[in-house]
Amino acid sequence: MEHILIVEDDEKIARVLQLELEFAEYHVTNVYTGKEALHAYNEGAFDLILLDVMLPELNGLEVLRRIRMKDKNIKVIMLTARDAVTDKVGGLDSGANDYVTKPFEIEELLARIRVHLKSAQIEAKSPSHTLQYKHIRVDTNSREVFRDDTLINLTPKEYELLVFLLEHKNQALEREQIIEKVWAYDYQGDTNVVDVYVRHLRKKLDQSKPSLISSVRGYGYMIKD
């Protein structure tokens, strides 16, 4: 049975989430502050974390940053009451795998939880594999990215975007296609988030022009030989 950590300071919301997840046959632990979240994470073994952004003591982004210093693999879904693209990008840049904006439908949240837990299972079973393009090397087992022999620190979404582009080298990929694959669900919103992440990747990966990632005007992006 998968173990999910809920970090939510509103006890009513936390209780509803706990009941719904337990009904869906997940094992659930509830905590209510940022410090409690870090203590629970360090003491327990969790498969996924539901993490509210606005928390007492330590906010959710700081909690996530500290968790990611130790663990790049655990799946984290942020819960936020703010819907601006900059807020969403901020959470994803901190290492979140996904975000859900309050108020949300419980069925949508459960669907996203299933997607990310399935992804974690696939990653755990995957054999060692390396993707190579020019001076960029990606170890898909350790989720590490190297430029020559230098380790490049990417957020989970930056990493997944890079892998998707490399796995479809020489193919022009639509922004909507990238959103659906990298964000693991149909995204009904602003696809400018893809442009933001491509800029981040270019800044981290490109030491000189031309960029590894090519723009396809009015369409999307590609990596080409």
TrEMBL record:
Residues recorded as bearing 4-aspartylphosphate in the entry: D52
Record bears the keyword Phosphoprotein: yes
Cellular compartment(s): Cytoplasm
PROSITE patterns reported in the protein's UniProt record: OMPR_PHOB, RESPONSE_REGULATORY
DNA-binding region: 128-225
GO terms classed as biological process: regulation of DNA-templated transcription
Gene Ontology CC: one annotated term: protein-DNA complex
Residues in OmpR/PhoB-type domain copies: 128-225
Domain of life: Bacteria
Signal peptide: none
This protein's UniProt keywords: DNA-binding, Phosphoprotein, Transcription, Transcription regulation, Two-component regulatory system
GO molecular function list: phosphorelay response regulator activity; transcription cis-regulatory region binding
Pfam families given in the database record: Response_reg, Trans_reg_C
Domain Response regulatory: 3-117
Family matches, as PANTHER family: REGULATOR OF RPOS (PTHR48111:SF22)
Protein's name in the database: Response regulator ArlR
Record organism: Staphylococcus agnetis
